Amino acid sequence: MSFFKALNIVKTYANHKALDDVSINIPEGSIYGLLGPNGAGKTSLIRIINQITAPDSGEIFFRNEHLKPTDVNRIGYLPEERGLYKKMKVGEQAVYLARLKGISKSEAITRLKMWFEKFGIEAWWDKKVEELSKGMAQKVQFITTVLHEPELLIFDEPFSGFDPINVELLKKEILGLRKKGTTIIFSTHNMGSVEEICSHIALINKSQKIIEGPINQIREKYASNTYQLSCRYNPEFDPETIVGTEFEIVSQRVEDERQDIILQQNTYCSANTLLSRVLPQADIISYQKIIPSMNDIFIKLVKEQLS
Amino acid sequence: MNKIFIIISREFSTRVRKKTFLVVTIFVPILFALFYAFLMWMLLRDDTQKRTIAVINESTLETPFQKINNTTFQYLDQNVPESDYAEFLKKNDYYAITRIPANVMTYAEIPVFSTSQVPMELKNELAAQLRQNIESVKRAEVIAKSQVPDLEEELEATKTPVLVRTLLVTDKGDTKEGSSEITSIIGLVAGMIIYFFVFMYASQVMKGVIEEKTNRIIEVLVSSVKPFQFLLGKIIGVAAVGLVQFLIWIVLGGIIMIAFQALFMPNLDLEALKNASDLTMFAQNSKINTEQLEVIQNLAKTIDPMFIMKFLAAFLFYFIGGYLLYASLFAAIGAAVDNETDSQQFMTPLSIILVVALYIGVAAMRSPESPMVFWSSLIPFTSPVVMLVRIPFGVPAWEIITSMALLVASFLFFTWLSGKIYRVGILMYGKKVTWKELYKWLRYKA
What we know:
heterodimer, A: about 300 residues, alpha/beta, Rossmann fold, Alpha-Beta Plaits, 2 domains, 6-stranded mixed sheet, 4-stranded antiparallel sheet, 14 strands, B: mainly alpha, 4-stranded mixed sheet, two-stranded antiparallel sheet, 17 helices
């Protein structure tokens, strides 16, 4: 059974194709990174999932059923461009937004009190939003997004506008929500946070999906079979003696009494075999396969599509 | 459906709790009422002060003035130089001194010297008496000269009292008395109220839409409710504010009317007054003069309860219909622009139509039967104002029904159209929107 699936989504605006036959499959309990440069079509896709706009063609399934209008209550959405009524009081406004997601007034108040306590912001309840700083308002906005305990949460660039301390707090909350079983779509072009919290990703560029899957598999796939061998520096040790027929040296450098050698593996050679060649000559610190960062993969794929 | 109610209640309660609403709805009418009460009190207050005015009579008139209410006149035998007036008044405790010049029969300009401001009423009375006295002397001279027998009686007989009574004839052959001045005023006032209400509340909807767009809260909102639902909730919520304001005004107006009646005409029996032909008896019982009583009598005759009910129903219908039509269009404008200054280019055509409606309404007051008035009372964009001006003059039922049906059809159509523009517009930022662009939006898929 699939949790959330969008199939062959096409969306065209006047003379520009925002989404061109895009399909994504979001496994339950994942943190699903939706990546792509600005203008790639991420927001268009997110708006379609939120039923803010309808696709020209394509189908969407939520737990194997066609997405229906009432499903908005099962989804929580924190848009990139977000805001609150400036003249309205914080508590009143949060209750209003919660009620629009189908929660009763009393239930909303109970849950809000709990969240406000958790974030230590009880004193803000009767303040107007215009009295809050930007970061404070963002916290309130985060709470209103998750208050109705949606099965699917969608964060569009959630960390923009937060200071590092609040980013940590938010990350902790997002991971906590995942632990409780919430599935999260996480749209961003900040690759650092992607590697840190995403379990799956899809890369969208120029209205098309380029790649999708579990983040580890993708990184594995784009690994170029290079290895890094680090040893304590020993002038007697000549790396050329260990390469054999299987490896060739890509680069090497010495720094702070430590020698790093990057090896390209051309034919298979087990780690044990290589290490047994090094063992008599040098003091090994580490030996590992080099996995490309998401950032590298992102740039590589976007450039590939460009050419 | 439930979500629409949540939206309506927010739109309603945030507006009703604003201080400006309280001020406009309650304090302004009370302030107006107090102001008018004060004015009426000033006008109706009996002039109880006893005054004596000294008169230096240089003319041939025997007694230019007789007693006016509490004011008496003292004719002086000798002249007093103008420079001594102040001292003279003080010494003899006179209120004022006046000099009737010798040429008063041909050119009656008389000075009245007083140490305090002479009340308008007294001044008018003085002029009236003097004129009457001069005229009767002159007339007596003419009569004496002409030597026509009984001329005086015959001249007297030429004075003819004239009263124009306007009567409405209905299809059933009944006649109903009514005053066209009062009906036309009622119609125009109602038309103007509609104009202001529609403009005021439709702009509130637009402001709300622009606020949500610039705040960027709209994307959160439309991820919970359909844009059209949200728009509908907003429009209905603001309409509710307008209706509540209007109801408060009706109640306040009723209370103020009753208070006025108790204050200024405590013994007036309106039912009896309605059928009375001689108003002098009523004038004696109340503190109001016959002319004012006539206005009240006309009002009482024109405004029978049936007419009020019908007129109020029409008012409510045209207010809601006109408001819905304009509010949805204003909402579309709000969604299309990024800030209020940009809204001008789209607002202008609508504002012009509304102002034209008001002008036609004024014209309808003078000629309710003209073709321009007829057509604009059927066309939905102008009918809310113009039809209301026409209704007190009597409009055939089919015209009202056609006009109402057209209004309903057009607000349904334009709300649907505006909904499409709204839906696209609220998520578009930083684009200078043109009419062509708006047309494109209409064809986007929801």
